[in-house]
Amino acid sequence: MTDYRCLNLGITKVYLIPCNEGYLLIDTGYPADYMKFRKKLAAVGVDVEEIKHLLLTHYHDDHVGFARKLKEEFGLPLILQKRSVPLLAKGDSGSEEGGQYITKRLKLLFSVFQLFHRSFRYPPVLTDGRDTLVDGDDDTVLRSLGIPARIIHTPGHTEDSMTLLFDDGTAFVGDAAMNFLKCTGTAYRPIYYTNEEKMYASIRRILSSGAKTIVPAHGNPYPAARLETMLNRFRGK
Ligand SMILES: [Zn+2]
């Protein structure tokens, strides 16, 4: 069983994974979630200095909101996709092309949400020589930190999305699959995609790579078999 701790920041859940020297943190929340993050970190008895690496699953504001702050204040090195670099430098996740909500009900819901949440901006994250850039799939970076897992490139939600797949089948998928707003018909799919074909192909890839438990950034963990059911329903076999 993969050992991890979940910090629920409201919309986004971030995860602490034990590594050789302390912890690897998967994602941050929105920029405004920083104090909540510090409180939740204290509540699980982890000092911020014990976090030694920050992995960003993709460049959206609810995942990298205070990444720059962590990098500047604590010198946290990043693990990220090479293709995330120019996106993170813009500090804006509201400008991508081809983005669609997965259902009509969600589109309606988010048109209301956006009346209140007008900006998708965050402090731009600039990479440097201490960061580790991954180009697609990778089977060495995490292992070198003492984490029995590999990285799979899982585009579709965004082009730069990646998944951490542990050898025991626990898959930290970021936003490549979700468990969120199911009342709107999402059925474990991302609520938003930039490329529908790639989104479904990535979910297939997560399954064929041996995922058993899906740990999403939005919603609770669930058995990977539910994604099989979803694929049968929406894509046939
Ligand atoms: Zn996202």
Would you kindly provide a written description of the structure presented here, covering whatever features stand out?
The chain is of the alpha/beta class and 237 residues long. The chain has a single domain, classed as Metallo-beta-lactamase, Chain A (4-Layer Sandwich), CATH 3.60.15.10. 29% of the residues lie in helices and 22% in strands. It has 8 helices and 13 strands. The chain has helices at residues 34-43, 61-64, 67-74, 85-90, 104-116, 141-144, 196-208, 225-235, and strands spanning 5-8, 13-19, 22-26, 51-55, 78-81, 100-101, 132-134, 149-153, 162-166, 170-174, 192-193, 213-216, 222-223. The strands form 3 sheets. The protein has a 6-stranded mixed beta sheet with strand order 1-2-3-4-5-7, with helices on one face. It has a 5-stranded mixed beta sheet with strand order 8-9-10-12-13. It has a two-stranded antiparallel sheet with strand order 6-11. Strand 12 and strand 13 form a beta hairpin. Helix 7 runs antiparallel to helix 8 (225-235). The chain is globular. The chain starts with a strand and ends with a helix. The structure holds zinc ion.
